[in-house]
Amino acid sequence: MEESAMVDMLFGVLSIGLAFILRRVFSLFDKLQEEDKILHNRITELGAQAVSRAELHGAIDRVLNRIDKLEERLMNK
Questions:
Q1: Which three-class secondary structure string do you get for 2-50?
Q2: Which among 77, 55, 74, 54 is positioned nearest to 66, based on CA atoms?
Q3: In the chain, N or C: fewer CB atoms in 10 Å?
Q4: Domain around 64
Q5: CA–CA dist 29, 35 (Å, integer)
Q6: Number of separate domains in the chain
């Protein structure tokens, strides 16, 4: 065989290998992007359901006020 034909065959084999690797990499990137969208949606939903800092402090203040009232009742008895 001629050297140029062997070089062409080598480039062809390398091109096929590179195409296979690139296809695999891009399919993995697509899967990663889909998983990222799912995770983003879950985080967004959690953020919408989470309690804000002001709501938390309001609830804590209510509980503390109740405890103070119970202490007053116990002290008055």
A1: CHHHHHHHHHHHHHHHHHHHHHHHHHHHHHHHHHHHHHHHHHHHHHHHC
A2: 74
A3: C
A4: 3-76
A5: 10
A6: 1
